[in-house]
Write a structure and sequence with these properties.
The chain is α+β, with helices and mostly antiparallel strands.
Length: 214
C-alpha cells in the first residue's frame, strides 16, 4: 500500500510540473530555435522610413537538381517603422510585384523568360495583384513578427532580424517562406505528381538589408 501511495504521489508531481511548463511556454510567443535575432540600437521615439525605394533579394531552387538556383531582386517601394521606448511597435512595407527581376537562373539563361513566368498567373499574378504588403506588429527578442499579404492572401510570418544603429534603423534579415501558403502552387510536389526534375521547392528564400531614418 505504501509503494502505491508513493507511486501515485510521483505521478501527481509530474503532472503538476508539466502543467507549469506548458503554461510558461504558452505565455512566451517565441520558441528556442527563434532567438538568433540581434537588437542593438538606440533610437529616439518616432517614425523611421526608407530614404528611397530599395530592393530585397530572393532565391528559388529545384531540389532534385543539385546546385540549381534561380535568384533575383524585388523593389521595396515604401517602408516605415514606429519606435517607442527603444522598441519597434508597428510598421509596414510595400513591395512592387511587377518589378520582379531575375539576375541568374539554374540553366544559365532565360532570365527574362523566368521573370515573365513568375509574374504570370502560374505564380504571382502581378497584373491582378501588383503589390504585396508586410505589416509589422512587434519585435520580440530579435524576432520580427507580422502579417504578409501576397495575391490578396494574408499569412502570419516571423523571422530573426538584426537591428542596429543610432537614430536610424539598420535591418538585416533572411527567412524562408512557403509559397504555397499564398496559392503559388506551380511545380509543387505537394500538389502535382510526376514532376521529376521540374519540381520546384515550395520554400523560397528572402533576404533584406535596409536602412530607415527618422
Amino acid at each position: 500500500m505504501k509503494k502505491i501511495l508513493i507511486f501515485l504521489a510521483l505521478i501527481i508531481i509530474v503532472i503538476l510540473l508539466l502543467n507549469v511548463f506548458s503554461k510558461k511556454k504558452s505565455e512566451n510567443p517565441t520558441s528556442p530555435e527563434m532567438t538568433s535575432g540581434i537588437v542593438d540600437f538606440q533610437a529616439e521615439n518616432g517614425t523611421y522610413a526608407l530614404k528611397e525605394p530599395t530592393t530585397l533579394s530572393w532565391e528559388g531552387r529545384r531540389p532534385l537538381i543539385e546546385g540549381y538556383l534561380d535568384s533575383g531582386v524585388l523593389n521595396i517601394t515604401k517602408g516605415s517603422l514606429k519606435v517607442a521606448d527603444n522598441q519597434i511597435t508597428s510598421g509596414s512595407f510595400t513591395f512592387d510585384m511587377k518589378s520582379i527581376h531575375v539576375g541568374s537562373t539554374g540553366m544559365g539563361r532565360g532570365n527574362d523568360m523566368l521573370a515573365n513566368h513568375l509574374k504570370s498567373d502560374d505564380f504571382f499574378s502581378v497584373e491582378k495583384y501588383p503589390e504585396a504588403y508586410f505589416t509589422v506588429t512587434e519585435v520580440i527578442n530579435g524576432i520580427l513578427i507580422g502579417d504578409l499579404t501576397i495575391k490578396g492572401i494574408t499569412q502570419p510570418v516571423q523571422f530573426p532580424v538584426t537591428l542596429s544603429g543610432e537614430n536610424e534603423l539598420h535591418i538585416i534579415a533572411t527567412t524562408q517562406l512557403d509559397r504555397t501558403l499564398w496559392d503559388v502552387k506551380f511545380g509543387s510536389g505537394k500538389f502535382f505528381d510526376n514532376l521529376a526534375n521540374q519540381m520546384i521547392d515550395d520554400n523560397f528564400t528572402v533576404k533584406i538589408d535596409i536602412t530607415l531614418t527618422k
